[in-house]
Task: inverse folding
């Protein structure tokens, strides 16, 4: 198990926020990304919560979607998932593949990416700060609250090619098992790392 770094002399590493928001909200009964949360959409709230802690944010949307239709600024950097509904893993792979070949400095200089679900706006600023402080090219950092692992997960750049090779609907779960010797668990007093939205009833419960 890799040891945590001391962030007392912290300097922000270049970490890209990558938000997964191409799902179809079947359990929610509608598009949960548009759910109203304090006057903004759920997806916008998640994005704004993560944005101050990373060097840039990219959001994975469904094929053909525009960010402003989801309450996001038009200039938001987005990657559109493939047109066929072929799973989270394939959508994630498409986004990371683009990042690997990007000529933009904000992508080339990143040592890691923070993989966040689009329905998790309650992760605390302190947790996000601590996670980003541990970012390194050859480490995967995951928060844990009361024994339960949550999000976001920080993937060092060494693991991006593996993310780009994902297929189907499993997402990155299999990679966490494959590279478990590189995973650092960061214990936090923050239920927000577990607070995703599956049904409308989750919104008042988790706020």
Result:
């Amino acid at each position: 198990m890799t040891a945590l770094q001391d962030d007392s002399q912290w300097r922000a590493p270049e970490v890209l926020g990558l938000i997964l928001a191409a799902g179809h909200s079947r359990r929610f009964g509608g598009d949960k990304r548009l759910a109203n949360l304090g006057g903004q959409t759920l997806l916008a709230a998640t994005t704004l919560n993560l944005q101050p802690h990373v060097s840039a944010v990219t959001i994975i949307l469904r094929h053909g979607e525009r960010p402003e239709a989801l309450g996001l600024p038009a200039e938001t950097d987005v990657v559109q998932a493939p047109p066929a509904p072929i799973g989270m893993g394939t959508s994630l792979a498409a986004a990371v593949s683009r990042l690997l070949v990007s000529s933009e400095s904000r992508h080339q200089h990143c040592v890691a990416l923070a993989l966040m679900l689009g329905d998790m706006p309650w992760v605390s600023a302190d947790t996000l700060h601590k996670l980003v402080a541990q970012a390194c090219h050859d480490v995967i950092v995951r928060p844990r609250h009361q024994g339960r692992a949550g999000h976001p997960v920080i993937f060092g750049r060494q693991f991006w090619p593996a993310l780009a090779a994902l297929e189907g609907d499993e997402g990155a779960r299999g990679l966490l098992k494959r590279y478990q010797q590189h995973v650092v668990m960061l214990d936090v007093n923050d239920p927000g790392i577990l607070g995703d939205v599956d049904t409308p009833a989750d919104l008042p419960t988790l706020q």
